[in-house]
Amino acid sequence: MTGALPPRAQYRIVRSAIRRQILAARVCQALPLHNEAMNDPSDHTSNPRPVPPERPLPEDCCQSGCNPCVFDLYQEALERYEAELRAWEARHEAP
């Protein structure tokens, strides 16, 4: 069988397809809320709460010593998220 992908590559392709389906489902669930929010003139629609980054799965790391590793990138994104969240909470504190 020429041109066949190794099992690990096939697994990664399937896993990526599943993640795309999950993301599409989340977007579909958020759409009604988004449409309702567009009719709401309150401030929270123009300044939404920051969304945390998605943690990589253990198998997302290729174990080859990449620099930066997906977990390093996740840690940086998490630190940015925490800073953005603190700033957002300070702006939305009750006077």
Describe the structure.
The protein is mostly helical. The protein folds into two domains: 1-45; 49-95, no CATH class. 57% of the residues lie in helices and 0% in strands. The protein contains two helices and no strands. The chain has helices at residues 7-38, 70-91. The longest helix has 32 residues, at 7-38. The N and C termini lie far apart (69 Å).
Give me some keywords for this one.
95 residues, mainly alpha, 2 domains, 2 helices, 0% strand
Explain briefly what this protein structure is.
This protein has helices at 7-38, 70-91.
The ordered H/E elements are HH
Q: How would you sum up the major sheet?
A: none
Helix content: 55-70%
- Per DSSP, the total helix count is 2
Total count of strands: 0
How is the topology of this model organized?
Blueprint: H1 7-38, H2 70-91
